[in-house]
Design brief:
InterPro entries: DUF6594 (IPR046529). By secondary structure, the chain is mainly alpha-helical. It contains twelve helices and six strands. Among the domains are: about 60 residues; about 120 residues, no CATH class.
């Protein structure tokens, strides 16, 4: 029995070509792109679903993301991993119009970026290089741990194979050449695992940026036309490259205000953000610490020499100790450092009070 004619054939319309075979879920499901590929700047190749046969042009190999409320997956992002560019088309790669619509093989996305994105990268790089406290990059912590766990699993697989071969050899059988091959394979896998472990440890020793640096960078991105900010999703994954650049204490903020007044000629205002060389606030902060430290120590000593009442001397010691502890806390000293320094300072004040001050003649 012959099959019944199609409706389109009965109406005289041309028959549309058949759809290609269904692609696996991991090829057709929308996914967030790599932050560097989202900006068009290189990254690993991505396999994406084949084009629709009804489309007049081929599918772009890179995923065209939708709006996820914070917009950090915009394909035109010039800021790697942050999203929202200053302009440019979403599809920056030329479409391959000669490709057949029936093709069902995944398309390999070629790495690279356009001239417009290159200009954006250069502008942001110039800003970061001029603002030392705004050198912000992602740690990619989850991906690093995933890579390390995969390499760990590969080492464990070789370990199991080696244990099986060792058992066979001990029982009088087995292949000693297989054991040698497994040992060479184990050496290769361990080197890769050790390298991943060392890189992960080195990355996690880098400190997170300060809140002021994040806010300052977001302001600069907005004023320069980069429509989106550093998303909150990535803020816990951001790092800066130098321990000395983590300057978010009250002392440093006060030092930055003084530096803008003292070094007024070096302050530049670009894109609505006042910028000053990063070493100037650090220099002023060190000068303030060098001035405050002897004052905290010498002023109580002078007061203890002139005060005769015991209760007044005790109040001076307590106030001086609390002030010293607060100053170290503002300078972002560690908990152990604050505790040890405060204890030493209090001991010095008590010894001075008992030996130099006129305790016997005081009126308590």
């Amino acid at each position: 029995m012959s099959p019944s004619p199609d409706r389109t054939q009965m109406e005289g319309h041309p028959t549309t070509p058949p759809f290609p075979p269904a692609s696996p879920a991991y090829l057709s499901a929308p996914q967030l792109t790599s932050p560097y590929h989202a900006g068009g700047g290189g990254g690993s190749p991505q396999y994406l679903p084949p084009p629709s046969p009804r489309s007049s042009h081929t599918y772009h190999p890179a995923y065209q993301p939708t709006d996820h409320t914070n917009g950090f997956t915009s394909a035109s992002s010039p800021f790697p991993g942050y999203g929202g560019g200053s302009g440019g088309e979403g599809n920056r790669h030329p479409s391959n119009s000669s490709r057949s619509a029936r093709a069902s093989t995944p398309c390999l996305a070629a790495p690279g970026y356009s001239l417009e994105e290159h200009k954006d990268f250069r502008e942001i790089a110039d800003y970061m290089s001029g603002e030392g406290d705004c050198i912000l990059v992602r740690r990619f912590g989850a991906l690093r741990f995933r890579d390390m766990l995969c390499k760990q699993a590969q080492v464990m697989e070789v370990e199991i194979q080696l244990a099986e071969e060792d058992g066979k050899v001990l029982q009088g059988g087995g292949d000693i050449e297989m054991v040698k091959r497994l040992m060479r394979k184990l050496d290769t896998k361990l080197k890769a695992y050790d390298d991943a472990l060392e890189r992960c440890h080195r990355t996690y020793t880098m400190p997170p940026p300060s809140t002021r640096s994040l806010s300052k960078t977001n302001t600069w991105l907005n004023t320069r036309g980069f429509q989106h900010r550093v998303p909150e999703l990535f803020q816990d994954d951001m790092i800066t490259l130098d321990q000395a650049l983590v300057t978010d204490g009250l002392m440093t903020r006060f030092a930055a205000l003084i530096a803008r007044v003292v070094f007024k000629k070096e302050v530049s205002r670009r894109a609505g953000v006042s910028q000053i060389p990063a070493h100037r606030p650090i220099l002023v902060a060190r000068a303030l610490i060098a001035l405050i430290a002897p004052v905290i120590l010498l002023v109580p000593v002078v007061l203890l020499c002139y005060l005769k009442a015991l209760w007044k001397q005790i109040v001076v010691v307590v106030m001086a100790t609390v002030t010293s502890s607060f100053a170290m806390m503002v300078a972002k000293a560690g908990n152990a450092e604050v505790f040890m320094a405060t204890s030493a300072y209090a001991a010095v004040m008590v010894v001075f009070l008992g030996t130099v001050a006129n305790v016997g003649g005081g009126k308590g």
